[in-house]
């Protein structure tokens, strides 16, 4: 038996083309984000796609601090601040409150969008339990919108569960003894939520670097009914250390290299979208991850063995996962799935009776013999034109 969420959702048609995007702006100028910030753009696109009959809830983070200068705000639609980690709770409470007021006749009975946004620290880490709980409350229509700049950027770039392997943060500076301090692979939040919440009708990933795809997914989530979730990658000039003019380029490169996939899970059916769909269907080749990593100062300490290890991990996502880049289990992996030729995701880890033993799967020492030729395109010597794909140095 399928339980449907009562209440009505706004009928929002797909946009499909930038020329058909709404002209009205419901997130306007006046915010105080950093130059080149790609976290402000998804707020604008999300509000534009949702339209005027929308209530926005924002947890503490970059998009709260930057949008609440004293007595001013860029939000045209009603919005409310909520506590760090409380996006899921605030969304359920607001949706339930609206439903109760409409039932009692205290306000007009009409479909109203409820969108709660959070950062990766406040959502993927501290707020994950509240988001999980919200996705099980299928009687309420709401959207959890997580903007992911891969760190606790509001408090000066600390490591979060979304910080990539090897990246420099204030909590993971490289040193002489340990060059790689961030040894955790990025948490797979949208895949985890899609797999763990089968009653959730819509889960998707996106990026403002591909604006139409992101706006269409916002509309798809809002018209699906019930609780929904969208995960959005937002390059951050301050935390990633690059020139602000390259934010959109890096957002696209994350997809083109296969590091960050675009997909949607609608009523339990997975569909890749955009560039990721072309890669999955073999119509497009993934770019080397080095093209993406070496454009960011947070990876400036990488040696060739680090690039090789990162590439290997991304290759495994595409070649060994049951669902490429979405479901992370593989034959011979951490659950008891057997096959004629088990695929072990990390050669430095021993497999014993379908369980893991040995060192954690983040070691890159298997590439220790990789020659480390002087190849540092983030340096000013790129003026010689030796590495045409590299961006100019920002001096950071």
UniProtKB/TrEMBL annotation:
The EC number on file is 1.2.7.1
Q: According to the UniProt record, where is the region Disordered?
A: 353-396
Pfam families, sorted: TPP_enzyme_C (PF02775)
**Single GO MF annotation:** magnesium ion binding
Q: Which residues form the Thiamine pyrophosphate enzyme TPP-binding domain?
A: 60-232
The cross-references to PANTHER family, in alphabetical order and at most eight, read: PYRUVATE SYNTHASE SUBUNIT PORB
Q: What is this protein called?
A: Pyruvate ferredoxin oxidoreductase, beta subunit
Q: Which organism is it from?
A: Rubrobacter xylanophilus (strain DSM 9941 / JCM 11954 / NBRC 16129 / PRD-1)
